[in-house]
Write a structure and sequence with these properties.
TIM Barrel, 8 strands, alpha/beta, 8-stranded parallel sheet, globular, single chain, 11 helices
Length: 256
């Protein structure tokens, strides 16, 4: 059984004061849902105060990005060691990073290796653009992103522990648009593309243990339909994670 996982990606929203308020609204209800793993991914400025508020709870903390070097003259970057001080998870390869900041499959791969080396659980984001979707290139693009993003990652004791990773299918055309993929369509991408790519990397049995999330206009109205699908183990939630009641309802849907 793969434990359901719901992660909230706050993106570039919430000041420290706003973050504290949001977490205080969420924690009591989230604490009562023990069958789902919960992860909050605030902006870097709010990680320390949010970490303090989550201490003693079962709610995990995630970063939205990292750089692959341990230290150095990289103005504006955050190293995996810095992230590891407070976080258990890190989002890597989000389409907004690829689109606005020039991230490629190769730089995503470097970040994956850095995260695993430092004991962080990466949430690898993959997904096709609207143009690629309309050109029937979804399978090709997502397969390439999974294989390239995880190239060189090893599995098992004494390795970088490839089992400690999550893959999030986020069709770019669905992110922040209000236009979600269909649950069946998302499930097929995981089943027909993501798991076969993982199987080529890690073997069929291991591929079945890796959690696959859906992301892209997930909200309290549609989350339950995605979670009914056999290959979807949770969600990477954007805008709806900025509202306590919405996010709580999504986690409750995953628990059911």
């Amino acid at each position: 059984m793969r434990t359901p996982l719901v992660a909230g990606n706050w993106k570039m929203y919430k000041t420290v004061a706003e973050a504290r308020h949001l977490v205080s609204e969420m924690v009591p209800a989230l604490q009562s849902i023990t069958s789902v793993e919960k992860v909050l991914c605030p902006p870097f400025t709010a990680i320390l105060p949010v970490s303090a508020l989550l201490e003693g709870t079962d709610i995990k903390l995630g970063a939205q990005n990292l750089f692959w070097e341990i230290a150095g003259p990289y103005t504006g970057e955050i190293s995996p060691a810095m992230v590891k001080e407070f976080c258990q998870y890190v989002i890597i390869g989000h389409s907004e990073r690829r689109t606005h900041f020039g991230e490629t499959d190769q730089t995503v791969n470097k970040k994956i290796h850095a995260a695993l080396t430092h004991g962080l659980i990466p949430i690898l984001c993959v997904g096709e653009t609207l143009e690629e979707n309309e050109a029937d290139r979804t399978f090709e693009v997502v397969f390439r992103q999974v294989k390239s993003g995880l190239a060189g990652v090893e599995w098992g004791e004494g390795t970088q522990a490839g089992e400690n990773l999550v893959v999030a299918y986020e069709p770019v055309w669905a992110i922040g648009t209000g236009r979600a993929a269909t649950p069946l369509g998302a499930n097929e991408v995981v089943k027909q593309v993501i798991r076969p790519a993982l199987a080529e990397l890690f073997g069929e049995r291991n591929a079945q243990t890796i959690r696959a999330l859906y992301g892209g206009s997930v909200n309290s109205d549609n989350a339950a339909e995605f979670f009914k699908e056999t290959e979807i183990d949770g969600a990477l939630v954007g805008g709806a994670s900025l509202k306590a009641a919405e996010f709580i309802q999504i986690v409750q849907a995953a628990a059911q």
